[in-house]
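Fold this sequence, please.
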Amino acid sequence: MTRRLIALDLDDTLLDSRKQVPEAAVLAVRKAVRAGKTVVFNTGRAVSELDEYADLLPEIRYAVYASGAGLFDFREKKTACLCPIPEAQQAEIRSLARTRDVMLQLVLGKTVVLQASHMEHLEHYHMGIFRPLYEKAMTLVPDILAFADSCREPVLKMNLYHAAAGERIASRARLEATGLQLAFASESSLECSAPGVHKGSGLARLCSLLGVSPQESIAVGDADNDIPALQTAGLGVAMGNAPAHVKAAADRIVSDQDHGGCAEAIMMLFDE
């Protein structure tokens, strides 16, 4: 099978543990694109959180973002195929957020919204490593729940960040009956997306737009929210730093994010 496209998760996949893109991965992306392959981001992040990597890798034109809820064309600066969370299910998430110690984040079409006071407590929610990114990319509001109550923009994803693992498990249990697509990501996040919307569905939509069969694609990732993409692509590749159940969902396993794993995966585009 000829592989024509590779979809790369960002955090702990393309990015190493310092949130940097290793030089080996940069070179591998450029080699792949020169050979006529398509490289895309496949991430839970919002568009506003991708600028640094789009500038570093201008060879990458497209992103599946917000865990499959949107597609973005960096060349045209356009979003497409938005799949927002229905209002009734947004209300369920807001209700939970009112009763638990969580940091709520809203991913909109091109921006991501956070309560200003939560910036002072990122470490409490195990997100301190993202502070430099958040300072550049977040739209801050005084009261995230009041903003969410009145927001009329499409809400593509709602992230709930927790102080303790048990609290995250309890939040997921409470939301299971809503039909929302739920996934653990990072150390403390519970990602909430519209029913049936995930990185696999986003990858399938992008493949359709580009005239590429999903069987001709490779998906690379390390976390729960990557599993649908690993199962949608013709070849699913788990990073060496992925937990055991993510590796079990993959076809291949490469080295970890600090030892060239993403570059290894990209070079699989050239396997015959």
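The longest strand covers residues 102-107. DSSP finds eleven helices and 14 strands in the chain.
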